[in-house]
Design a protein that fits this description.
This protein is an alpha+beta fold. Helices cover 17% and strands 30% of the residues.
């Protein structure tokens, strides 16, 4: 088996999908133009898929109150400072300082315009 996708119930999946396409290099694989406005987004590799939708029958999480360590979407970045600054200019907000771990990984947390946490990471040794 393999993971097909991860899903998030968000307040505005249409706008959020557009932002992730424009600023995080994702592409729309499939979308629904009526409620719940489901969008399946693939990362640049095409192997990781994120589903965004707005289901009113489910609780909409208060992403702003979630600690970044509770839930985040991690993206690799070659230049953490440059990418952080670019995303902040596009409407994200900083959620943590840039840190280097004991293993040499460089990372930081941001919140997208809907308060979902995005992590930027440059691994000393890539996971794959």
């Amino acid at each position: 088996m393999h993971i097909e996708h991860m899903a998030l119930n968000v307040p505005d999946p249409v706008a959020m999908a557009a932002w992730y396409v424009a600023h995080l290099g994702m592409r729309v694989m499939r979308k629904q133009d009526q409620a719940p406005f489901t969008h399946f987004l693939a990362d640049e590799s095409g192997r990781v898929v994120l589903e965004l939708y707005h289901h009113t029958k489910a609780v909409l999480p208060d992403y702003a109150k979630l600690d970044p360590l509770t839930l985040h979407i991690a993206f690799t970045a070659g230049d953490i400072v440059k990418e952080r600054d670019r995303l902040i200019a596009a409407g994200a907000t900083s959620a943590a300082d840039i840190v280097t771990t004991d293993t040499g990984d460089v990372m930081t947390f941001l919140r997208d315009p809907w308060s979902v946490t995005v992590q930027l990471v440059k691994r000393a040794k890539p996971l794959q």
